[in-house]
Amino acid sequence: MPINIIIWVAIAFVALFFFGVVVARLYKRSSKEVAFVRTGLGGEKVILDGGAIKLPVFQEIVAVNMRTLRLQVDRKNEDGLITADRMRVDVTAEFYVRVKPEKESIAKAAQTLGDRTLQPEMLKELLQGKFVDALRAVAAGLSMEQLHEQRADFVQSVQSSVSEDLLKNGLELESVSLTALDQTGRSYFKEDNAFDAQGLAKLTLITEAKREERNRIEQETRVKIETKNLEASKKSFTISRDEEMARLDQEREVAFAAAEQESLVASEQATRKREAEEARVLQEQKEKEANIAAEQAVRERDIIREQTIKERDINAKRQVEETDIMRHQSVEIKKQESDIAVAKKSEEQSEAEAEAAKARSIMVKEEENVATVRQTSIANRDKEIELIKARESAEKEAIDIKVAAEAQKQAAIDQAEAIVTEAKAEGERIRIVAEADEKRLEVEAFGERAINEAKNLLSEEIIAFEVRKILAQVAPEIIEASVKPIEKIDSIKIVSTNGFNLPGNSGGNGTGSSENGGAPAASGGMPNQLMEALLAYRMNSPVVDKLLHELGIDPDKPGGLTEELGKALESEAKEK
C-alpha cells in the first residue's frame, strides 16, 4: 500500500477524532431533573428531552431545575398573621413548587427566574412575598378558631391565590402544607397597635373566661373526684362493715353451735344424771325391797322360830305330859306293884287291874297322840296364816313405802322448788324494800339535814323560843307527874299534928314506895301517907318552878300558871 494513502487515511482518522471531540464538548444534554433553554444563534430553543450543540460565543444556555422544591415560610411573633378576630397567629407553611414541564413554562422560568431554580434559597427569597401575601389575605378572612378548625380550606385558599402568580414565572404549585399553627405569645402584642389592642382584649377575655371555666372545671372535677373518693370510701366502709358483720355472724353462728353443743352435752349429762339418779333410786328401792324381803325373811324366821319354840314347848309339854303319864304310870305301876305286893294274894285282881292300867295308858297315849296331831295341825295352819298375813303385810308395806318414797320425792322436789321460788321472791322483796328504805333514808336524811341547817341559821332568840315551846309542850306532863303523889287526896283538914309518926321516927314506918307512880308508900297509916305525898310534892316543886320560870310563867302569881299555859297552848295551836 502506498505511503500516501496511509497518510491520508491517518489524517482522515485524526480529523474524525478531532471532530468527534469537538462535537462531544459542544453537545449539551437535558435530563429528567434539569432542562435548559438555548438562546443566541438560531433563536430560542427549549430542550426538555434530548440535547443540542451550544456554540460558544454565539449561543447561551440557561438551565432550569425540573425537580420539586420545598419552600418553607415562617410567620411568627411580631410577624405573625392577623386573623379576622384581630388575633395574631404563628404559622409555618411549606410550599412545594416546580417548573411546569412545558416548553413555554420552562422558557418563562428561564426568563424570569434564571438559574434561581437551581438555588432554592434564592427562589424562596424571590417568591416569599407572594406566599406571605397569600397567607395574610386568607388569614384575614378567618378567625383563629376557624383557621385552626378549617386548615384544609385555609391551605386550599392559599394555594388558589398563589397558583396564578406562580404560573407567570413558569412555576406550578403542587401543594401547600400548614405544618405549624399557634397563637402568638402575649408579649408580642403591641398595645399601641389597633389590631393588637383588639386582640389583647379578646385574648384577655378568652383567657380569663377559659381560666374561669378551667377553674370551674377543676373545682367540679375535684368535687367529682372527692365525691367519687367518698363513694369509694363508703363502699369500702360498707364492704368492711359487711365483712365485719359476716365475721360477727360467723362468730355468732359458731357461738350458737357451741352453745347448742354445750346444751346438748348438758342435756345428755342431765339425762345421764337422771338415769343415774333413777338407777340409784331403783337400786335403793331394790335395797329397800331386799331389806323388806330380809325383814320378811327374818319375820318368817322369827315366826318359824316361834313356831319351833311353840312346837318345842308343845313337845316339852307333851314330854312333860308323857313324863307325867309315865310317872303316873310308874306311880300306877308302883301302886299296882304295891297293890300286887300288898295284894299278892289277889293275883287275879292285880292282873286285871294291871291289864286295865295298861289299857288306860294306851288309851291315854293314843289320846295324847291325837291331841298332839291336832295341835300340830293347828300350829301349821296358824303358821301358814301368819306367813300369808306377813307376806301381805310386807307387800303392803313395800307398796306403801314405795308410794311414800315417790310422794316424798315429789314433795321434796316441789318443796325445793317452792323454797327456791320463795327465796327468790323474798330476795326480790328484800331488794325492793332495801331500795325503798335507801330512798326513804336518803329523803329523811336530806330533810333532817335541811332542818338542821335551817336550825343552825336560827338566831338565839328563835332557839330560846323553840326551847320554851318544847318546855311548854312537856310542862303539863311534868306538872302532872309532880302532883301525881297528891292526886288521890280528896281533901285535907288538919285538926292536930300531935301524935303523927313522921318519917325517921323510931317506928321506921316512913320507908317504902307506893304502888302507883313512885309516891312514897307509908305503912304508918293515912297521916304518914299524906305527909310523904306532901314532902314529895315539895321536893318536886323547885324543879317545876324552875321550869315555869324558864317558860316565863310566874307560879307565885295567882292564876298565872293556867293563864300562861293557856296562852302557850293557844299560840301553839295557831302556829299549827
From TrEMBL:
Residues passing through the membrane, by range: 6-27
Annotated segments matching region Disordered: 505-525
Keywords: Cell membrane, Coiled coil, Membrane, Transmembrane, Transmembrane helix
GO cellular component, one term: plasma membrane
Gene3D superfamilies: Band 7 domain
Membrane topology of this protein: Single-pass membrane protein
Coiled-coil ranges per UniProt: 333-369
Domain of life: Bacteria
Domain Band: residue ranges: 24-193
CDD domains: SPFH_flotillin
Compartments where located: Cell membrane; Membrane
Family: Belongs to the band 7/mec-2 family. Flotillin subfamily.
Official protein name in the record: Flotillin domain-containing protein
Native organism: Rubellicoccus peritrichatus
